Amino acid sequence: MLERFARFRPGGNLAVRIVFAVALVSIVTGIVAMLTDPELAAGGLLADLQATAEFTGTVVGFALLVAAWGMRRGYRVAYLAAATLVFLAAAHGVAQSRLLSVPLIVLSLGGLAILALTSERFTRSSRLELSETQFGALVAIIGVCCYGTAGAYVLRGDFDELDTAVDAVYFTLVTASTVGYGDIHPRTETARLFAISLVVLGPTTVAVAAGSLFGPAIETRLTRAGRRVTNHHDETNRVAVLGLDETTAAVVERVADRTAVTVVASDDRRLRALPDAVDVVVGEPTSAETLERAALETADVVVLAGSEGADTAAAVRAATDARLVAVLDPDNESEPRVDAEVVIDPRAVVADAVTEAAFGGPDAAAQSSASAAFHSG
Fold first, then answer.
1. Distance CA 260, CA 183 (A)
2. How far apart are the first and last CA of the chain?
3. In whole angstroms, what is the distance from residue 82 CA to residue 23 CA?
4. pTM listed for this prediction
5. Quick one: which of 2, 3, 150, 320 is 20 to 30 A from 332 by CA?
6. What are 232-262's pLDDT values in tens digits?
């Protein structure tokens, strides 16, 4: 039995489901705890810790929902965030010190075990590379939040209605964001000067940081959209490529200049080498779940590559009625016949092009290559 347990390797779907379950339980536990709000025998610091854990546990639950969404798409950073948040969910359950939080503790500990066994399932890179300016902007935001929270808490005696660390965080956020509910008032000149500094630093830092962090991403999206609009003459609206090798990588780069392309492959290293305009999905092209994440039903053309073409073709036919193009050797007995409208033999293209270029000139080579490479399905 122990040997069977040692060989147990849960799938990525189970990890996503357990994280989603921990998120829901954390949210429900926190909300119910805040609504019931029982009287504690021991007051003081323990009571404040429990009350804080009830609120922040709910926040952790919502953060876990975001992490589960990223894990469903195979992101490594989402997996790491989920592992950290599940641990925090368990810690919040312990801090709440209530019978109500026992299911959260048990489920979180089980979730940590599942996540430890599924680490290799989540390898997709988020392609998040911060420039020095963006990194500085991010540090500035964190710095202002820490400055405001620490300063407000230290000066809490100079403010009305500011007693705890949560009050300090609240005051910092509403002041730096210029919301200013006005429920916390500075009573001394020192407190007023501190509030003025936070009003000046907060909005300025957030505005500059937002432009630095999100500006390049927005510009990339607009550029990609503009490229697609200017190529409206192309009849193909969206191409999905299942499988990636040296041949199809070159095809993807060409097609991406004309229309939207989504590439599905299990090799994350090859996917990272593709242009930024290409949407990538990490996973096995024969997996129904992977094809669902790739939104295959919206593709107009699906390109198949690799020896698993027959199995992939069957899955594609079940998911969409798009035109099917297969890039493989139709004469190779190890590759079963693929039910595709077009089958392209890359070796035939190269052989005919070289032969005709040697004896018949470039025009003849292009014509012969095209006729030899395409086989109607």
1. 51
2. 51
3. 10
4. 0.48
5. 320
6. 444 456 888 888 877 778 888 888 888 888 8
